[in-house]
Amino acid sequence: NAGVTQTPKFRILKIGQSMTLQCTQDMNHNYMYWYRQDPGMGLKLIYYSVGAGITDKGEVPNGYNVSRSTTEDFPLRLELAAPSQTSVYFCASSIGGALTMADEQFFGPGTRLTVL
Amino acid sequence: QKEVEQNSGPLSVPEGAIASLNCTYSDRGSQSFFWYRQYSGKSPELIMFIYSNGDKEDGRFTAQLNKASQYVSLLIRDSQPSDSATYLCAVAYFSGGYQKVTFGTGTKLQVIP
């Protein structure tokens, strides 16, 4: 199993450009998440999904959009990039479900994004 | 807003000593508690989880949970330089039928050889 994969690993955007960060998991997990991590800071949840076709906002959703048409894929779309979106973006997945007390999140390697 | 508080550190301990990492949380309804380790430039990985009051041991790591005090800690015995990393506390609760997780900002641990 590859686990959680993310592309690209690095990207530089100009202000106002748009891009999609790709995330794929092959563990048949129900839940998927997008986080951003600024230098020296913790993880802030952008969006999450509890299953195909179901997404919801996290703590910092402004400037981002997501979709989840399949169990495996959870792309994150940045529209009109701004310098404030310079960060490392992590995608994660977990089994999910009400009966899971220890719902471990598995993280992808991250995408380092710079907006200039 | 569910809050999870950690001292950002750095916490410096000599090799072979016990490192004690602490975390407090605001929501009394929180049910599961996780410790993730994150090496510089890498993604977080799970070390331990705990959901019952008391201690849970796994090798050199011990997680301690006190729900009455809303406090969870991670002890690392016989600390090694390879333990130098940032440790993230994560707290899970159920809302609207779904489990949600809030991460703390992490404590940076430095183990001095």
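qc> The mean pLDDT of chain B is 93.
qc> done
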